[in-house]
Amino acid sequence: MAVDTGALPIINLDDYINAKSPADKERVIAEVRDASKKYGFFQVKGHGIPLKAQEGLIRGLGNLFHQSEEEKAKLSFLKNPGRRGYEASGVGGLRAGDAMHDSKEAFYIGREDPVLEPPGFYGPNVWPNLPEEECRSLIWEYYQGTSVLGRIIWAILLQGLGYSADLLDDFAKRPIVQMKMIRYPPASLTKPGQFGVGAHTDFGGVTVLLQEPAKAGLEVQDSETKEWLPVPSIEDVLVINCGDMIQKWSGGAYKSAKHRVINKADTERFSCATFWHGDASAANPLNADDDDKDTIGQLLFKRFKSQFSLPKEAKDQPQGVAPHPNESGMPQQVEVQ
Question: Which domains does the chain have, with CATH numbers?
Answer without folding.
Answer: 3-282+295-307 (2.60.120.330)
